Amino acid sequence: MNDKRHIPFPILVAVKQGDALAIAHIINYFEGFIVSRAEVSVYRPDGSVTRMVDPDIRHSMEMALIEMILDFEFR
């Protein structure tokens, strides 16, 4: 059964071993969540407001995610 709601355990193990493709898989899996939390409002001179993804916030969240996974201990 291929359940898209869960990250396969072998991917998590590969991330812990530093596998770049597995790390990219994890970041891709959480991309929607990260982007939604990294959006900021930008106020333009004409008074309009637009939303954009702050690259610094996005990068910080991606790094925090990777660090948490690397620090996680399997039981």
UniProtKB/TrEMBL annotation:
Location of the Helix-turn-helix conjugative transposon-like domain: 9-73
Top-rank taxon, per record: Bacteria
Name under which the protein is recorded: Helix-turn-helix conjugative transposon-like domain-containing protein
